[in-house]
């Protein structure tokens, strides 16, 4: 056997499978994409181009350029997130991988609410850990009894993603306080994947971060969603200084360093307000929710740009096959969950495609 046992346990991403298929079709109604439909703001693009032309194209320090680390730390502390240091990573995905590498040993367990973003499971498994899922259907809220029941003497980490991909759910203050309280009681580490933090549709006064509540939290974020810099692969992790310092060391051997000019552009991005672009997503959320709520069992998303309805008959895989026959691209819920009763629909699309998609979905119901 030429391949490792490790790789034989991994199946190709169902999200990428649909994404690649959509790229081969003519004029698909593509509601599968997990990235903003607006482009990187022009001033941010121009800043990146400026630094490319200035010759800032070499390796950067393994922890990221110092001015970006300092500026991110300043912005995070303004939000009252508890952190001593920050590392710049190859996207939030790279940040999660490094976080797991320096905190999790083989055999350790990581608790994840289900539904969940697909790569969590495989990054944990590839490093020899064990993902332990807690069911949060039907309302996508974390219950204390379920969390406590999942904890064993091998539990090391609780991983929370709010706003959530694929459900669009946002954890309430009470949920996050409960997670922080249980983690402190059990002396666990918490990972808070905040990549969609700006895509939250409640009042800012109601917005709470896990990193505000517990000092053993690693806050994971990035520039891919808020500033649409998905292809520039730039993220960060903030938390206790000791952990971040070891992540910098680990990055030397995993990614070496991250995109040079994107880091310079990110300095400008942090001061560039995209609220007006993101506000449009509230309207899109309302459009698709109002278009589906009388035909589907669906929870209104409070964040991100996904909605996760239950499909008639409870077989999301078959439902997606039928949707493809109607030139509509969505993702089966089984990609993100032990259940296959739902589908993930992205409303990060133009209004015309959204209306077409809603029409197809209503007819399918």
Summary of the model, kept short:
By secondary structure, the chain is of the alpha/beta class.
What do you see in this structure?
This protein has 365 residues and is an alpha/beta fold. The protein has two domains: 127 residues, Aspartate Aminotransferase, domain 1; 212 residues, 3-Layer(aba) Sandwich (Aspartate Aminotransferase, domain 2), CATH 3.40.640. Helix content is 41%, strand content 14%. It contains 13 helices and twelve strands. The N and C termini lie far apart (47 Å).
Mean of all residue-level pLDDT scores: 94
From the spread of the alpha carbons, the general shape counts as globular
Termini separation: 47 Å
CATH topology of the largest domain: Aspartate Aminotransferase, domain 2
* Strand and helix order: HHEHHEHEHEHEHEEEHHHEHEEEH
Main pleated-sheet profile: 7 strands, mixed
CATH architecture of the largest domain: 3-Layer(aba) Sandwich
Uncertain runs: none
Radius of gyration: 20 Å
Q: Please give the number of β-strands.
A: 12
Helical run tally: 13
Structural class, from secondary structure content? alpha/beta
Helical residue percent band? 40-55%
Just give the CATH class of the largest domain: Alpha Beta
Domain count:
2
Question: What kind of oligomer do you see?
Answer: single chain
How much beta, percentage-wise?
Answer: 5-15%
Q: CATH superfamily assignment of the largest domain?
A: Type I PLP-dependent aspartate aminotransferase-like (Major domain)
Strand order of the largest sheet: 2-8-7-6-5-3-4
